Amino acid sequence: MASSTDPVTNGHHSSNGEESRPAESCLVSPPQSVTSPVDPVRPAKRLRTATECVVVSNPSDPYNSSSVPIYQTATFKQTSATDMGAYDYTRSGNPTRSALETHLEKIMRCERAFATTTGMSALDAILRLARAGDEIIAGDDLYGGTNRLLTHIKTYLDITVHHVDTTNLDAVRASLNSKTKFVLLESPTNPLLKICDIPAISTMAHAACPSALVIVDNTMMSPLLMNCLELGADIEYHSGTKFLSGHHDLMAGVIGVKDAEVAKRVFFIINSIGCGLSPFDSFLLLRGMKTLALRIERQQENAIKVANVVQSLGFKVNFPSLDSHPQKKLHASMAKGPGAVLSFVTGDVDKSIRIVEACKLWGISVSFGCVNSLISMPCHMSHASIPAHIRKERDLPDDLIRLCVGIEDSEDLIDDLVAAITSSNVSKEDR
Ligand SMILES: *Cc1c(COP(=O)(O)O)cnc(C)c1O
Question: What is the average per-residue pLDDT within 408-428?
Answer without folding.
Answer: 91
